[in-house]
Write a structure and sequence with these properties.
Layout (H helix, E strand, L loop, with lengths): L1 H31 L3 H9 L8 H11 L9 H13 L5 H28 L4 H15 L2 H6 L6 H21 L13 H16 L7 H20 L7 H9 L2 H15 L4 H5 L13 H8 L16 H15 L2 H12 L7 H18 L7 H4 L1 H26 L4 H26 L6 H13 L6 E4 L4 H9 L10 E4 L9 H7 L3 E3 L4 H5 L3 E5 L2 E5 L11 E7 L2 E8 L2 E2 L2 E2 L8 E9 L11 E4 L2 E4 L16 E9 L15
Parallel strand pairs: 1-2, 1-3
Antiparallel strand pairs: 3-5, 4-5, 6-7, 7-10, 8-9, 10-13, 11-12
Helix pairs in contact: 1-6, 2-5, 3-4, 3-5, 3-22, 4-5, 5-6, 5-8, 5-19, 6-19, 6-20, 8-9, 8-19, 9-12, 10-17, 16-19, 17-19, 19-20
């Protein structure tokens, strides 16, 4: 009898040991899935310079300069550190890697937030935290900004960090779990440090501060009521008096925030000797002008209140682009079900932060909404994780100990969330083969090298690529061939332009200022050539033709771009096919003409936003325009034939 009891005890211990081992293996396995996020980013990461601001952030960090307002001090300092410490890859790749690290860290903060909310919950909730992290990390906007150098993914990371640190502080100060050790405000101080650092990255982070402040005050108010033993509505004066007694905590909070803001000291220390950027940031006005983007921020146009219903439709379109309908439904469920579980304060933190960012971003006309809305989309993914956890908890109360349906439901949402997003986004989001930046730099040298034409290249949208070439690669065009310059303000509409038009002058993009000054812009390779009105010469790289329709005659064309004078013909589905037309009219047309291009069953009719209107043509001059046709993603491979109608 005794032997039988001992054998039974040994069997139970062995089973418990096996179960514990299996649990640990499962726990380790699910954590390994977090590696999927950085792996996706690494496989789709850009490898060469990306035209525009990403290239500016790269060379600014490399030379420790100062970027355009608001300056982006945090990404500059951190970018320089990363470029120095990582010995592999090009400088551009290392800066893109910073975005991948930031995007991964943001998803990990989301994971940590959900784990904190439901710790020490069952292992199933650990998979829910993984689900939330993957939903955020594989959303197309988050993914796209995590594979090229940009400050906006870092701004979203600070949003995720702030929510995580406040959630940890809330969890450690709950009445049922608070102890002398756990009740300390260390997580609150870490939050203040993160909040200060975030401001040095981008002022957009400030828009979350009202929600953070109300949340902290709400927690303190709840603690005050518990400590005072008065659960009725108490006088406001009494609560404010309790805040005064917290002055050591509040003082430390400001101290940690100032420690984060100390990154801004980079500006006055570096500005007098900066190789690129303003040299007046060692003065108060110069500093404030730049970090507050004075002149820009004061003239930002906004959508009115009457236009907000339409903006809500815009938001819905962006939201549906990120997540499938079941995931959006989970986020809505996660928003409302905590009300039943007395988690109102923590949910108010997430929803309040979302609304603060939403109110600003959705009303702004002038900036890139897809970059600025990264934070709100991250919060939607976080709420989706909360929604799944609440749904599983609700079903578990009904099903009892049988967890198989819960695991099945979790698997279904993994398929409808992260798996679907990976399958849908991976083929189109990758920048691994993107070489437009490096191609542009090389094309610039190929176009001008050895010509001795002393051309002037007006730098606008792609000027950062040449600055990258100058500061990072130490490669700059010979002045005998070409001199890149940058124009500011409206001064271009004067004698300087007239001077430039007397010799070869090219612009790196369409510039309304040049057209408004009375000059013509012709697409020439990677540039637009500035010519005077009345020019009747046909660019040599165009194929001559003679097709007349009504008042217009097409005298030359090029189907596809040209590289080293060779026409490119391989344009996959989803890419842009440039079509260049040289047109002329014996008399100035009286009607407005625009081309219509047919691709299979699709028709492309172009607007006149960036093209010279036909009633402004001079008789006999040749007008050259380029039209970009966006080939549909489902467009089958075919030979494109052209005919003139």
């Amino acid at each position: 009898m005794t032997s039988s009891i001992k054998d039974t005890e040994k069997t139970e211990k062995a089973q418990r040991g096996f179960s514990l081992t299996a649990y640990r293996l499962l726990l380790a396995d699910y954590r390994l899935f977090l590696l999927l996020i950085p792996l996706l980013y690494l496989f789709t990461l850009a490898r060469t310079p990306v035209l525009g601001d990403p290239t500016e952030y790269t060379f600014i960090a490399n030379v420790l300069g100062i970027a355009h307002p608001p300056g982006y001090a945090f990404i500059t300092v951190l970018g320089k550190l990363l470029q120095t410490l990582i010995p592999l890859g090009s400088i551009a790749w290392r800066m893109h890697l910073l975005a991948a690290v930031s995007g991964t860290v943001a998803a990990l903060f989301v994971y940590g937030t959900v784990r904190t909310l439901y710790a020490p919950a069952a292992n199933l909730h650990a998979w829910v935290a993984l689900f939330a992290a993957l939903v955020v990390g594989t959303a197309v906007d988050h993914w796209q900004h995590s594979i090229h150098a940009n400050p906006h993914i870092i701004t979203a990371t600070f949003t995720a960090a702030n929510l995580y640190f406040l959630t940890r502080w809330w969890s450690s100060n709950k009445a049922e779990t608070r102890t002398a050790e756990s009740g300390k405000d260390r997580w609150l101080y870490v939050f203040c440090l993160s909040a200060g650092l975030g401001v040095t990255q981008h002022p957009l982070t400030v828009f979350g501060f009202p929600a953070y402040t109300l949340f902290i005050l709400a927690i303190w108010f709840k603690e005050w009521r518990l400590e005072s033993g008065d659960r009725r509505s108490s006088p406001l004066f009494s609560f404010l008096s309790s805040l005064l007694r917290r002055w050591p905590t509040i003082l430390k909070m400001f101290g940690f925030a100032l420690l984060g803001l100390s990154v801004w000291l980079y500006y006055p220390l570096r500005s007098p000797h900066v190789p690129f950027g303003p040299t007046t940031m060692n003065t108060l006005n110069g500093f404030l002008d730049h970090v507050l983007a004075r002149g820009l921020s004061e003239s930002l146009p906004y959508f009115s209140l009457a236009e907000q219903p339409q903006r809500l439709l815009v938001f819905w379109s962006i939201l549906h682009l990120q997540f499938s309908l079941p995931i959006i439904a989970l986020a809505i469920f996660g928003l409302f079900t905590p009300l039943l579980n007395r988690q109102l304060s923590i949910v108010n933190l997430y929803t309040g932060t979302f609304l603060c960012f939403y109110a600003f971003v959705i009303s702004l006309r002038a900036q890139d909404i897809m970059a600025y809305i990264l934070g709100p989309m991250l919060i939607v993914g976080l709420l989706a994780g909360i929604g799944l956890a609440q749904l599983l908890a609700l079903l578990q109360r009904r099903l009892g100990q049988d967890k198989r349906p819960l695991w099945l439901l979790t698997a279904v949402f993994f398929l409808l969330g992260p798996t679907l997003q990976i399958v849908r986004n991976a083929p189109v989001v990758s920048l691994a083969n993107f070489s437009e930046g490096s191609d542009y730099i090389q094309a610039t040298f190929d176009w001008f090298a050895g010509t001795g034409q002393q051309a002037t290249a007006k730098r606008l949208g792609a000027h950062d690529a040449l600055w990258y070439s100058q500061f990072v690669d130490e490669r700059w065009p010979d002045a005998a061939d070409m001199t890149p310059i940058r124009f500011h303000g409206t001064a271009v509409a004067g004698k300087r332009l007239c001077l430039f038009a007397r010799r070869p002058c090219l612009s790196q993009q369409l510039s309304p200022r040049i057209v408004d000054a009375g000059f013509r812009l012709r697409p020439r390779g990677p540039f637009y050539q500035v010519v005077e009105p009345g020019d009747a010469t046909l660019p040599p790289e165009l194929t001559p033709t003679n097709a007349t329709g009504e008042e217009i005659t097409v005298v030359g064309y090029a189907l596809g771009a040209t590289e080293n004078s060779a026409q490119l013909t391989n344009y996959p589905a989803g890419s842009y096919l440039p079509i260049t037309l040289a047109m002329s009219a014996p008399l100035t047309p009286t009607a407005y003409y625009v081309p219509t291009i047919h691709v299979g069953t699709l028709d492309f009719t172009f607007t006149t936003d960036s093209h010279l209107l036909t009633p402004t043509w001079q008789p006999g001059e040749i007008i050259v325009e380029r039209f970009d046709v966006a080939l549909p993603l489902l467009c089958p491979a075919a030979i494109i034939r052209s005919r003139w109608i």
